[in-house]
Amino acid sequence: MRRRPSPDRPTALRHRVGAVELEIAAGSVVGHRYPANFDVLHVDAALPFVAVADGMGAGEGSRVAGSTAMTTLVEGVHASWPGTGPRQLRAAVAETQSRVRAAGARLAELTGCTLTALLAEPDGEQAWIVQLGDSRAYRLRDGLLELMTVDHTAAWLGLLHGWYAADSSEAARARYQLLRYVGHPDAPTADLLAVPLRPGDTWLLCTDGVSDQLDYHPLRDHLAGPDPTRAVRDLLAATLAAGGDDNATAAVLRVHPATH
Protein backbone atom coordinates (compact mmCIF):
# COMPACT_ATOMS: atom_id res chain seq x y z
CA MET A 1 0.00 0.00 0.00
CA ARG A 2 1.54 3.31 -1.05
CA ARG A 3 0.37 6.40 0.78
CA ARG A 4 0.31 9.82 -0.83
CA PRO A 5 0.71 12.20 2.09
CA SER A 6 -0.15 15.88 2.04
CA PRO A 7 2.64 18.29 2.93
CA ASP A 8 0.30 19.72 5.57
CA ARG A 9 -0.51 16.39 7.16
CA PRO A 10 2.37 13.93 6.82
CA THR A 11 1.77 10.21 7.08
CA ALA A 12 2.41 9.02 10.65
CA LEU A 13 2.41 5.49 12.09
CA ARG A 14 4.24 3.17 14.47
CA HIS A 15 5.69 -0.33 14.11
CA ARG A 16 6.84 -2.53 16.97
CA VAL A 17 9.75 -4.81 16.06
CA GLY A 18 11.30 -6.84 18.85
CA ALA A 19 12.39 -4.65 21.74
CA VAL A 20 11.93 -1.33 19.89
CA GLU A 21 9.12 0.70 18.41
CA LEU A 22 9.60 2.81 15.29
CA GLU A 23 7.69 6.08 15.09
CA ILE A 24 7.54 7.05 11.43
CA ALA A 25 6.42 10.25 9.75
CA ALA A 26 6.83 11.12 6.07
CA GLY A 27 5.72 13.61 3.46
CA SER A 28 6.52 15.23 0.14
CA VAL A 29 6.12 18.58 -1.65
CA VAL A 30 6.28 19.45 -5.33
CA GLY A 31 8.22 22.68 -4.83
CA HIS A 32 8.12 25.70 -7.11
CA ARG A 33 10.13 24.48 -10.11
CA TYR A 34 8.36 21.42 -11.50
CA PRO A 35 4.73 20.98 -12.58
CA ALA A 36 4.43 17.61 -10.83
CA ASN A 37 6.09 15.51 -8.14
CA PHE A 38 8.52 12.96 -9.60
CA ASP A 39 9.57 11.74 -6.15
CA VAL A 40 7.94 8.55 -4.89
CA LEU A 41 7.43 7.86 -1.18
CA HIS A 42 6.48 4.53 0.38
CA VAL A 43 5.52 4.18 4.03
CA ASP A 44 4.52 0.58 4.61
CA ALA A 45 1.33 -0.01 6.57
CA ALA A 46 2.25 -3.61 7.46
CA LEU A 47 6.05 -3.77 7.71
CA PRO A 48 8.78 -1.61 9.32
CA PHE A 49 9.81 -0.39 5.89
CA VAL A 50 10.12 3.03 4.27
CA ALA A 51 11.62 4.09 0.95
CA VAL A 52 12.10 7.16 -1.23
CA ALA A 53 12.83 7.40 -4.94
CA ASP A 54 13.64 10.41 -7.10
CA GLY A 55 13.04 10.32 -10.84
CA MET A 56 15.69 11.71 -13.17
CA GLY A 57 14.29 14.65 -15.06
CA ALA A 58 10.72 15.85 -15.40
CA GLY A 59 9.33 13.61 -18.12
CA GLU A 60 7.48 10.35 -18.53
CA GLY A 61 10.69 8.37 -18.06
CA SER A 62 11.16 9.92 -14.65
CA ARG A 63 7.60 9.15 -13.59
CA VAL A 64 7.68 5.58 -14.91
CA ALA A 65 11.06 4.82 -13.35
CA GLY A 66 10.08 5.98 -9.87
CA SER A 67 6.72 4.25 -9.87
CA THR A 68 8.09 0.99 -11.33
CA ALA A 69 11.08 0.90 -9.02
CA MET A 70 9.03 1.44 -5.88
CA THR A 71 6.31 -1.03 -6.81
CA THR A 72 8.89 -3.71 -7.61
CA LEU A 73 10.94 -3.19 -4.44
CA VAL A 74 7.84 -3.28 -2.25
CA GLU A 75 6.69 -6.49 -3.91
CA GLY A 76 10.09 -8.08 -3.30
CA VAL A 77 10.22 -7.09 0.36
CA HIS A 78 6.70 -8.33 1.04
CA ALA A 79 7.30 -11.60 -0.80
CA SER A 80 10.33 -12.48 1.33
CA TRP A 81 9.28 -11.10 4.74
CA PRO A 82 10.03 -12.02 7.53
CA GLY A 83 13.09 -13.72 6.08
CA THR A 84 14.20 -10.63 4.17
CA GLY A 85 17.99 -10.37 4.31
CA PRO A 86 20.89 -9.38 2.05
CA ARG A 87 20.22 -12.06 -0.57
CA GLN A 88 16.53 -11.22 -0.84
CA LEU A 89 17.17 -7.48 -0.97
CA ARG A 90 19.76 -7.87 -3.71
CA ALA A 91 17.34 -10.02 -5.68
CA ALA A 92 14.62 -7.39 -5.25
CA VAL A 93 16.96 -4.65 -6.47
CA ALA A 94 18.00 -6.78 -9.46
CA GLU A 95 14.36 -7.26 -10.39
CA THR A 96 13.80 -3.53 -9.95
CA GLN A 97 16.64 -2.81 -12.36
CA SER A 98 15.24 -5.29 -14.87
CA ARG A 99 11.73 -3.86 -14.85
CA VAL A 100 12.83 -0.23 -15.07
CA ARG A 101 15.16 -1.06 -17.96
CA ALA A 102 12.31 -2.86 -19.74
CA ALA A 103 10.02 0.10 -19.20
CA GLY A 104 12.71 2.46 -20.48
CA ALA A 105 13.12 0.46 -23.66
CA ARG A 106 9.57 1.45 -24.58
CA LEU A 107 10.22 5.16 -24.05
CA ALA A 108 12.32 7.48 -26.17
CA GLU A 109 13.85 9.24 -23.17
CA LEU A 110 15.96 8.70 -20.07
CA THR A 111 14.19 6.36 -17.65
CA GLY A 112 15.88 6.21 -14.26
CA CYS A 113 15.60 7.09 -10.59
CA THR A 114 17.41 7.00 -7.29
CA LEU A 115 16.33 4.64 -4.51
CA THR A 116 16.96 4.74 -0.76
CA ALA A 117 15.14 2.39 1.61
CA LEU A 118 15.26 1.25 5.23
CA LEU A 119 13.87 -2.09 6.42
CA ALA A 120 14.04 -3.11 10.09
CA GLU A 121 14.59 -6.77 10.93
CA PRO A 122 11.82 -8.55 12.87
CA ASP A 123 13.89 -8.66 16.09
CA GLY A 124 14.45 -4.89 15.97
CA GLU A 125 18.18 -5.15 16.57
CA GLN A 126 19.20 -3.78 13.20
CA ALA A 127 17.93 -2.49 9.88
CA TRP A 128 19.06 -2.74 6.29
CA ILE A 129 19.59 0.35 4.16
CA VAL A 130 19.41 0.02 0.37
CA GLN A 131 21.14 2.82 -1.57
CA LEU A 132 21.31 3.65 -5.28
CA GLY A 133 21.89 7.21 -6.47
CA ASP A 134 21.96 10.43 -4.47
CA SER A 135 18.95 10.31 -2.22
CA ARG A 136 20.26 9.93 1.33
CA ALA A 137 19.94 8.35 4.77
CA TYR A 138 21.07 10.30 7.84
CA ARG A 139 21.26 9.27 11.50
CA LEU A 140 20.97 11.63 14.45
CA ARG A 141 22.48 10.07 17.58
CA ASP A 142 23.35 11.94 20.79
CA GLY A 143 23.18 15.27 18.97
CA LEU A 144 25.49 14.19 16.13
CA LEU A 145 23.96 14.10 12.64
CA GLU A 146 25.84 11.75 10.29
CA LEU A 147 25.33 10.96 6.63
CA MET A 148 25.23 7.16 6.50
CA THR A 149 25.03 6.70 2.73
CA VAL A 150 27.28 7.65 -0.18
CA ASP A 151 26.11 9.71 -3.15
CA HIS A 152 26.72 7.77 -6.36
CA THR A 153 27.71 10.88 -8.30
CA ALA A 154 30.79 12.23 -10.06
CA ALA A 155 30.66 15.15 -7.63
CA TRP A 156 31.08 12.85 -4.64
CA LEU A 157 34.16 11.23 -6.17
CA GLY A 158 35.58 14.59 -7.24
CA LEU A 159 35.21 16.16 -3.82
CA LEU A 160 36.49 13.06 -2.04
CA HIS A 161 39.64 12.90 -4.17
CA GLY A 162 40.21 16.64 -4.44
CA TRP A 163 39.60 17.01 -8.16
CA TYR A 164 37.85 20.34 -7.61
CA ALA A 165 36.58 22.62 -4.85
CA ALA A 166 33.14 22.11 -3.32
CA ASP A 167 31.90 25.51 -4.52
CA SER A 168 33.35 25.21 -8.04
CA SER A 169 31.37 25.14 -11.28
CA GLU A 170 32.90 21.69 -11.97
CA ALA A 171 31.43 20.33 -8.75
CA ALA A 172 28.05 21.86 -9.57
CA ARG A 173 27.95 20.15 -12.96
CA ALA A 174 29.19 16.83 -11.56
CA ARG A 175 26.40 16.87 -8.98
CA TYR A 176 23.99 15.80 -11.72
CA GLN A 177 26.20 13.02 -13.13
CA LEU A 178 24.85 9.89 -11.47
CA LEU A 179 27.19 6.91 -11.63
CA ARG A 180 24.70 4.41 -10.21
CA TYR A 181 20.92 4.55 -10.39
CA VAL A 182 17.90 2.36 -11.08
CA GLY A 183 17.61 2.01 -14.85
CA HIS A 184 21.35 2.36 -15.55
CA PRO A 185 22.39 0.32 -18.63
CA ASP A 186 24.88 -1.72 -16.55
CA ALA A 187 22.30 -2.53 -13.84
CA PRO A 188 24.68 -1.63 -10.98
CA THR A 189 24.19 -3.19 -7.58
CA ALA A 190 22.96 -1.16 -4.63
CA ASP A 191 24.94 -0.42 -1.50
CA LEU A 192 23.49 -2.56 1.29
CA LEU A 193 24.24 -1.40 4.83
CA ALA A 194 23.45 -3.15 8.12
CA VAL A 195 22.82 -0.52 10.82
CA PRO A 196 21.90 -0.96 14.50
CA LEU A 197 18.62 0.40 15.82
CA ARG A 198 19.24 2.09 19.18
CA PRO A 199 16.51 3.75 21.23
CA GLY A 200 16.88 7.51 20.94
CA ASP A 201 18.19 7.42 17.36
CA THR A 202 16.43 9.43 14.68
CA TRP A 203 16.76 8.51 11.00
CA LEU A 204 16.06 10.67 7.97
CA LEU A 205 15.57 9.32 4.46
CA CYS A 206 15.28 12.11 1.91
CA THR A 207 15.59 13.02 -1.74
CA ASP A 208 18.08 15.64 -2.89
CA GLY A 209 15.33 18.24 -2.86
CA VAL A 210 15.86 18.21 0.90
CA SER A 211 19.60 17.63 1.21
CA ASP A 212 20.58 20.08 -1.56
CA GLN A 213 18.50 22.92 -0.15
CA LEU A 214 19.04 22.53 3.61
CA ASP A 215 22.44 22.74 5.27
CA TYR A 216 23.72 20.53 8.07
CA HIS A 217 22.55 22.64 11.02
CA PRO A 218 18.92 23.13 9.88
CA LEU A 219 18.68 19.39 9.19
CA ARG A 220 20.03 18.55 12.64
CA ASP A 221 17.88 21.11 14.43
CA HIS A 222 14.63 19.97 12.81
CA LEU A 223 15.39 16.30 13.50
CA ALA A 224 16.25 17.00 17.14
CA GLY A 225 12.70 18.10 17.96
CA PRO A 226 10.38 15.87 19.99
CA ASP A 227 7.85 15.13 17.23
CA PRO A 228 8.79 13.35 13.94
CA THR A 229 5.59 14.58 12.30
CA ARG A 230 6.50 18.17 13.12
CA ALA A 231 10.05 17.50 11.90
CA VAL A 232 8.76 16.38 8.49
CA ARG A 233 6.41 19.32 8.20
CA ASP A 234 9.16 21.79 9.14
CA LEU A 235 11.76 20.20 6.85
CA LEU A 236 9.45 20.39 3.84
CA ALA A 237 8.41 23.94 4.65
CA ALA A 238 12.09 24.87 4.91
CA THR A 239 12.75 23.54 1.40
CA LEU A 240 9.99 25.76 0.05
CA ALA A 241 11.35 28.75 1.94
CA ALA A 242 14.80 28.02 0.50
CA GLY A 243 13.41 28.33 -3.02
CA GLY A 244 11.54 25.09 -3.65
CA ASP A 245 13.92 24.33 -6.51
CA ASP A 246 13.11 20.60 -6.56
CA ASN A 247 10.58 18.04 -5.45
CA ALA A 248 11.35 17.31 -1.79
CA THR A 249 10.53 14.13 0.16
CA ALA A 250 11.43 13.24 3.74
CA ALA A 251 10.78 10.26 6.00
CA VAL A 252 11.74 10.54 9.69
CA LEU A 253 12.00 7.45 11.90
CA ARG A 254 12.51 7.67 15.65
CA VAL A 255 13.53 4.58 17.62
CA HIS A 256 11.80 4.11 21.00
CA PRO A 257 12.05 1.29 23.52
CA ALA A 258 9.00 -0.89 23.11
CA THR A 259 6.37 -0.52 25.81
CA HIS A 260 4.95 -3.66 27.39
Summarize the topology.
Layout: E1 11-17, E2 20-29, E3 39-43, E4 49-55, H1 60-80, H2 86-105, E5 113-120, E6 126-132, E7 136-141, E8 144-147, H3 154-160, H4 169-174, E9 191-196, E10 202-206, H5 208-211, H6 216-223, H7 228-241, E11 248-257
Helix pairs in contact: 1-2, 6-7
Please name the defining characteristics of this protein.
alpha+beta, Phosphatase 2c, domain 1, six-stranded antiparallel β-sheet, five-stranded antiparallel β-sheet, 31% helix
Describe this entry's structure for a reader.
This protein is an alpha+beta fold and 260 residues long. It has one domain: 4-Layer Sandwich (Phosphatase 2c, domain 1), CATH 3.60.40.10. 31% of the residues lie in helices and 29% in strands. The protein contains 7 helices and 11 strands. It has a 6-stranded antiparallel sheet with strand order 1-2-11-10-7-8. β7 and β8 form a beta hairpin. The chain is globular, with a radius of gyration of 17 Å. Mean pLDDT is 94; it is low at 1-6.
